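name: query_chain
kind: protein
chains: 1
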Amino acid sequence: MKTRRCDVLIIGSGLAGLALALKMSSQGKVVILSKEKATDSNTDMAQGGIAAVMAREDSFENHIQDTLTAGAGLCKVEVVENFVNQAPDRIQDLLNWGVHFDVRRGVDNEENSIDLTREGGHSFRRILHFEDQTGHEVHRTLLKRVRENPNIELLENHFAIDLIINKQVNTYDMSPTRCVGTYSLNKTTGEVEAFLGKSTVLATGGAGKVYLYTSNWSGATGDGIAMAYRAGARISNLEFMQFHPTCLYHPEARNFLISEALRGEGGELINSQGEAFMRKYHPLGSLAPRDIVARSIDGEMKKSGAHCVFLDMTKQDAEFLKKRFPAIYSKCLEYGIDMTKTPIPVVPAAHYLCGGVLTDMSGRTDIPGLLAIGETACTGLHGANRLASNSLLECLCMAHNASNVLGNELNDLKVCEHDPKEWHYPEESNDDEMIVISHMWEEIRRLMWNYVGIVRSNKRLERAQHRLKNILNEVREYYSHFKIHSDILELRNIAIVADLSVTCALRRHESRGIHYNLDYPFVPQVKVLDGERRTDPKAKDTILLRGLR
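structure:
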């Protein structure tokens, strides 16, 4: 078995992983493992933008309060303050790396300034964007920088399987438990390789593909969360899967997002009768926080029996829409929808996981040597519901904080000298069995959508848990006996994350933020008045699940 060593091992090639690699490249050898092509990530698909206080009329306090309000009383205030306060500096990092943002003419009409838009839950315009393809612009630029950096090695089609703990490498190691690297499937050769680093960082993104309908890319299967759990790390608050209110409703476009920025520019949600309905549910109307909008759409669809609602942009200037949202305009046209003339059919879809591997604001986990950053981590920034466009900001801030931690520790750490145990290859099985893998994948995703969706109940959750236990046993059997394959690895991970999500949901005996359970009274948004910062003292802060080790 091939064994390779480096200073910093990063698993995942989204914004968090790329930003950390660039910041650490001057201090040692960095290796990035990407399970498919490096261009495949949720970052690349992000449309809206990045939240940061840039306007004179805005303030850090406003951004902090908006984040706390959206988080429904479960945000960690110190984390929110840290990330919001450093946001302008992280934007400057992007500018220094060559990222472009849309600009507008200044007030005096003589100088250009960064254009800011507004999204749901924000009290001011503070979203920096590049057209409606912000994530693509950011990811493309950083990826180019990474490929040009001689101290960073980016390995595509390398699927991390399991973390390596020092006790597994050396049975007689009496030092404290520590993560020393990972086993990884080289999808090109079909061989398993070992990668060892002074520090290992999980930056694998979220788990939207655990659900049948999602805005996420096809590889968002919760790999880092499942790996950390199997290694013994604590997992937190997986019940908080945020459903984006507006994905394009079309049989051939199941995961195309219709950015919240359209509502920030005056878009109105209407039902199948053409009625604007959001004011019935929240004073901010179509710009209410995402959890409220998603539940409201779900309720309207159930009342009418309609398959979708609509986002009406027809009252906006047509030329403005084409220039501001070129990708969305073009994609809708592909499906025969001219958004300047016809409302866009939309439905909610699984979008962003607010829970994950429990970490501090620098990404440190329970296991020394293992960090988790970005959507993989649960820092307490988002609480019970993420404020729009705080996700890319979190990636940048966690990468920065983690680089400070690693920079202080790296010189005192050593790469594991012992080679890990050889990988045991299970016996080959009939390729016809791969159809069963596909069926199990589909069963899990449909089960999660039907029983652990926008609106839940204890009975639904208990049914889901019972069925998932049987599926988990079958998955373990396939993993143990079937020839190693990326489809089986992803199936194992989504089965674990689905089961953990249901367990977290059953342990939260309240409705709060994204988690809405019919058997418990709903906790309204926490109001924050007169500059007071607080979370809800009555809320159970975190639902924690101890890993398997």
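note: The longest helix spans residues 458-481.
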